[in-house]
Write a structure and sequence with these properties.
Oligomer: heterodimer
Distance between the termini of chain B: 41 Å
Structural class of chain A: mainly beta
Shape of chain A: globular
Number of helices of chain B: 0
Largest sheet of chain A: 7 strands, mixed
Strand content of chain B: over 45%
Number of helices of chain A: 0
């Protein structure tokens, strides 16, 4: 089954404790992206990757890091989480060069105390 | 500045009561406009892609249309299972593979 898998789905952590949210897709998609969703603000892009070893900032990259060492994986790293990073995070992937639909993961709800 | 807005913010319908959701956009060089459905606690699920003004797409009770400045999602005779948040997103020539999402319309269909 084609899917985008995120882990963990739920996480409560404390300010400053480094964490990683993993994302894996099994569709051989070139493009992967991270979004955060906050009430009233909609989905905002954090980082995206056009292919292995190619990453770039989205609209709200501050406080986040990403890496793309393999095509299927695109982890989101919060080096020193802060309460304003409490949000619902989605990983998404897409087929490639032409405009195409995004396939989303189920989401990871993060709370930073 | 490129923008995507959606209206209304929330909509309540009785089962069978048809209506439309609006997505207005201001971008340069539209490559595609996308509609997604999002159920509570889930990731958005793709519904339609529209590429050019005048284009229409249909799926069950949903029909999406596109003009040069806006898109409509028409819901005909909705059922309670159509209750969800509907998101539109645009992909513009200067975005590469990136998308800008609107804030969504939260639809409730009452039995």
């Amino acid at each position: 089954e084609a899917q985008v898998t995120q882990n963990p789905r739920y996480l409560i952590t404390v300010t400053g404790k480094k964490l990683t949210v993993t994302c894996s897709q099994n569709m051989n998609h070139e493009y992967m992206s991270w979004y955060r969703q906050d009430p009233g603000l909609g989905l905002r892009q954090i980082y995206y990757s056009m292919n292995v070893e190619v990453t770039d900032k989205g609209d709200v990259p501050e406080g986040y890091k990403v890496s793309r060492k393999e095509k299927r994986n695109f982890p989101l790293i919060l080096e020193s989480p802060s309460p304003n990073q409490t949000s619902l995070y989605f990983c998404a992937s897409s087929q490639g060069l032409t405009p195409g639909e995004l396939f989303f993961g189920e989401g990871s709800r993060l709370t930073v105390l | 500045e490129d923008q995507v807005t959606q209206s209304p913010e929330a909509l309540r319908l009785q089962e069978g009561e048809s209506s439309s959701l609006n997505c207005s956009y201001t971008v340069s060089g539209l490559r595609g406009l996308f509609w997604y459905r999002q159920d509570p606690g889930k990731g958005p699920e793709f519904l339609f892609t529209l590429y050019s003004a005048g284009e229409e797409k249909e799926k069950e009770r949903l029909k999406a249309t596109l003009t040069k400045k806006e898109s409509f999602l028409h819901i005909t005779a909705p059922k309670p299972e159509d209750s969800a948040t509907y998101l539109c997103a645009v992909q513009a020539a200067n975005y590469g593979q990136n998308f800008v999402f609107g804030p969504g319309t939260r639809l409730s269909v009452l039995p």
